[in-house]
Specification:
The complex is a heterodimer. Chain A is an alpha+beta fold. Helix content of chain A is 48%, strand content 12%. Chain B is elongated, with a radius of gyration of 21 Å. The chains are: A alpha+beta, B mainly alpha. Chain B: It holds the Pfam family YqhR.
Chain lengths: 494, 173
């Protein structure tokens, strides 16, 4: 890598044909069809314009070339070519380039590069127009009411959507390029006088330290470099595709990472409870939002512990208090309950996986087969007792009510481990499993922030804000988890 | 102006003082984990009912009823404030969550071995069922982590915040 960069640190030769030769040798001019060169003459000097089709807007380029060619008629030839061209480039974003590798980088990012005879500097003009879609409501984070513009794959549009919501002079987007071959744009977004300087510094250093060919899996790959989570299934950062959610977190003092080619933005630092919040809660009145949130907590809790508890009571019915003695399978089956649960959980996993990549016209058929045929017939044949289906279904609904897909899957994994523990060790298995689970979560850290905050370590006020969704004027303190520079939200009153 | 002050958005929220946070953590920790202990008792995970705390005193019949349960859970919370203050006084500088867990297990040993004779509701240690011991150890360990780790973390936060303010002043001046 060092060898390569030292070669490419060469300055731009003053003869455009040398540049052309370089392009042929190194960048594949003439070999790749998408790299193009347009040669014109201005005052009898060669001017070459390089472009990559597909990444730039042809109309702009035509305009610029037209203006340049007209120089021959309108200006006298004694003037300096460099100044003349700089003056006539009809674009707000024109940047002089001095080095060949910089030139190539810019060119392959979709800018056009103008090389002039007799000059050792070239111009890069930002006529980029990346292929992409328009902001659209994100499929994973829908709300009943609220803005429908979600992030897209274009980092410029994404930062634009954020800037639209925070017109603060202190909002910063630091951009850097990561990936030896992909040269992916990554922007660190934060509000300068709020976000924690140490956190920004850590993130910047971690991003700069990434040494990889390409980040084709964009944000997910970046996350794995940032948090180094190993085989811990819990998501240590939160993703959002909603611009309003991203802006809210910026104002709270979080640091956001925008990765080009991904419609999700990384929110750091994150806790377990961040994954349980959803924009919908904030689109309803505080009472309704609180109610929704409690239902959701109940669902998530159920998705984790309902099945292990039920299995425990099936294995040891003597544990049940008198009033709940009716719980438990009424029919006997030939297959142990634990096996039945695992089989149906496996079936559900199949269903989830299949649902992701089944073409929409076939999805209905798939649902029908899964629900009616497998569920009903399995009971009729006597493979499953009805209770297993009931509890597995309720616990699956709990998983679906988890707003974060990643958290839902991680919880499912933990549930399966708890089930195994219960089936082997009964009560001690469940109790010790529960304890270790909580302690494991409490001991996790995401960018130095405890993962299970504000429950463990306990923070009374933040816990209250998690339990009760406060009204917008009532929520005045930034969460201490981000260690903000200013704790009060309204800067005027501080 | 007076009108303006009354608006909810213009009222300032004072951050909790460290002492208030310790007391609240103790209270809520005691109530929460003894409440969970009561649930564990309901489902026969443990033989220890929270109202063993009331047993040394001769009280009315209510102490065996739901009122007794509620009062004992609240009482646990109050006692737990003392526990939190002890942790605050002695161990607040410890960073690890394991200190808190050890602290909790220490309290478990204290209650179940040393103070055992005071509570007629808790059988002598050797006669306790395995389920009871394991459930109690786990509850106490979680309780210890809850109180201990919270206080230690808040202590570090406080220090960090002071450092941050000092650094900010250096930058601005």
């Amino acid at each position: 890598m060092t060898n390569k960069s030292s070669v490419e640190k060469l300055p731009i030769p003053s003869d455009p044909s040398e540049v052309e030769q370089f392009m042929k040798d190194r960048v594949g001019l003439g070999e790749s069809f998408d790299l193009g060169i347009r040669k014109i003459k201005i005052h009898k000097k060669d001017v070459h314009i390089y472009s990559v089709n597909g990444l730039c807007d042809t109309n702009f380029i035509i305009q610029i070339i037209k203006e340049l060619v007209e120089l021959n008629d309108n200006e006298n030839s004694h003037q300096d070519l460099y100044d003349l061209i700089q003056n006539r480039l009809l674009h707000q974003s024109v940047q002089p380039v001095k080095l060949m590798d910089e030139l190539v980088d810019q060119l392959l990012s979709g800018l056009i590069v103008i090389v002039m005879e007799g000059e050792t500097e070239a111009f890069a003009v930002d006529v980029r127009s990346y292929p992409g879609r328009q902001p659209d409501e994100p499929v994973t984070e829908k709300v009943v009411r609220g803005s429908r513009d979600g992030f897209v794959e274009n980092i410029i549009l994404n930062t634009g959507l954020t800037r639209l919501r925070i017109r603060d002079e202190r909002l910063r987007f630091e951009i850097l390029k990561v990936g030896e071959r992909s040269k992916t744009d990554i922007a660190i977004g934060y509000v300068k006088d709020v976000a924690n300087t140490d956190l920004i510094q850590i993130i910047r250093e971690e991003l700069e330290a990434i040494n990889v060919d390409g980040l084709t899996m964009a944000d997910k790959a970046v996350e794995e470099y940032l948090v180094k989570q190993g085989y811990n299934p819990y998501p240590l950062v939160r993703y959002t595709e909603r611009a309003d959610v991203a802006a809210t977190h910026l104002l709270e003092g979080h640091v956001l990472i925008y990765v080009s080619t991904s419609p999700s933005v990384i929110i750091t630092p994150t806790t377990y409870f961040h994954h349980l919040q959803h924009a919908e809660e904030y689109r309803q009145s505080p009472a309704v939002g609180t109610f929704i949130r409690w239902c959701r907590f109940l669902g998530v809790f159920g998705s984790l512990f309902l099945l292990p508890l039920w299995l425990l009571f099936v294995l040891e019915p003597s544990l049940l208090p008198e009033e709940l003695k009716f719980i438990g399978p009424n029919e006997k089956s030939h297959i142990p309950i634990i096996l039945q649960i695992f089989l149906s959980e496996l079936g559900l996993m199949f269903l989830r996986l299949a649902a992701i990549h089944t073409p929409t016209p076939l999805a209905t058929a798939m649902g029908l087969i899964a629900a009616v045929l497998i569920g009903q017939i399995a009971i009729d044949v006597g493979v499953f007792v009805p209770e297993v289906i009931l509890y597995v279904a309720v616990s699956a609904m709990g998983t679906f009510s988890t707003p974060s897909y990643e958290l839902g899957i991680a919880n499912t994994l933990v549930k399966l481990v708890l089930l195994i523990l219960v089936s082997i060790f009964k009560v001690p298995g469940l109790v010790i499993g529960f304890t270790l689970y909580l302690l494991f979560l409490a001991n996790l850290r995401s960018f130095n922030s405890p993962y299970f905050w504000p429950f463990l370590p306990f923070s009374p006020r933040a816990c209250l804000e998690i339990l009760f969704r406060k009204s917008a004027p009532g929520s005045k303190i930034r969460p201490s988890i981000v260690q903000p520079k200013k704790r009060q939200k309204q800067s005027s009153s501080s | 102006m007076a009108e303006k002050e009354k608006l909810e958005q213009n009222q300032k929220e004072k951050p909790l003082s460290f002492m208030a946070m310790v007391i609240l953590t103790g209270l809520i920790g005691g109530i929460f984990w003894s409440g969970l202990g009561y649930m564990a008792y309901l489902f026969n995970f443990t033989d220890v009912h929270p109202n063993v705390i009331l047993e040394p005193w001769a009280l009315g019949a209510w102490k065996k009823q739901w009122l007794g349960t509620v009062i004992s859970i609240v009482l646990m919370g109050v006692l737990s404030i003392g526990v939190a203050l002890v942790y605050y006084a002695v161990l607040k500088k410890m960073k690890s969550i394991f200190i808190g867990i050890g602290f909790g297990i220490g309290i478990f040993l204290l209650v179940f071995l040393v103070l055992n004779p005071i509570f007629p509701g808790i059988k002598p240690f050797r006669e306790l069922s395995l389920n009871t011991i394991i459930t109690s150890v786990c509850l106490y360990a979680l309780y210890g982590a809850f109180v201990g780790y919270s206080i230690s973390y808040e202590y570090q936060e406080q220090e960090y915040r002071e450092n941050q303010e000092v650094r900010e002043k250096e930058v601005t001046s």
